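Structure in, sequence out. Go:
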């Protein structure tokens, strides 16, 4: 059974989501404070954390940052509807995706399944690694090496870099990146891809000319360029 941890101080709403997730076959634990949630998130018992930004004792973005110092567990944020600032801050701190509240239980389950599906290692029988200039990726191990340095990536960052590596030299549209890396269509005004790629860029060195290896092609998408 896949175990999900919900960290949210809204007792009624988190209980509703927990009941729905259990009917969908998930194991669920609910914590209503950040301190207890942080401890459980790092316990190794869960496959994914659903984290509310607004909590009574510790802000959700601080919990997210603390988790990311020790774990790559997938994290799905609850954000206030229309609150782009919290959404961007959460993604920059290492969240894999977000769901604006209120949302339907069906939408929540769809996001969870998409994240978990993309986090599963690829078939080990596939030939590897993927060689893309100074980048090598082992999909079965979820491992990425940049020149001779292993990259510390969140699950979503790994997925995005893998898609760009497979298509090195080709411009990949944001819709395609969202479908393949996030497992969902790109929503209008959704900046998730941009924020995740900004984080990846910071983890890569630059070319000799000072330009990023991941280039933005205005109006078209992103391209991983060859060395």
């Amino acid at each position: 059974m896949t175990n999900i941890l919900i960290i949210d101080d809204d007792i009624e709403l988190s209980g509703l989501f927990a009941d729905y997730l259990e009917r969908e076959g998930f194991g669920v634990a609910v914590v209503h404070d950040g301190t207890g949630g942080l401890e459980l998130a790092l316990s190794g018992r869960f496959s994914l954390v659903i984290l509310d930004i607004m909590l009574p004792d510790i802000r959700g973005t601080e919990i997210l940052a603390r988790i990311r110092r020790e774990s790559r567990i997938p994290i799905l944020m609850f954000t206030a509807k229309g609150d782009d600032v919290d959404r961007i801050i959460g993604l920059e701190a290492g969240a894999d995706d977000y769901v604006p509240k209120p949302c339907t239980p069906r939408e929540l389950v769809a996001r969870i399944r998409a994240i978990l599906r993309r986090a599963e290692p690829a078939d080990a029988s596939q030939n590897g690694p993927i060689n893309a200039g100074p980048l090598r990726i082992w999909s079965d191990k979820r491992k990425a090496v940049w020149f001779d340095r292993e990259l510390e990536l969140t699950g979503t960052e790994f997925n995005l870099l893998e898609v760009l590596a497979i298509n090195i030299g080709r411009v990949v549209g944001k819709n395609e990146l969202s479908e393949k890396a996030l497992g969902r269509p790109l929503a209008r005004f959704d900046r998730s891809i941009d924020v995740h790629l900004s984080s990846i860029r910071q983890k890569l060195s630059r070319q000799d000319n000072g330009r990023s290896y991941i280039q933005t092609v205005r109006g078209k998408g992103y391209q991983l360029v060859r060395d």
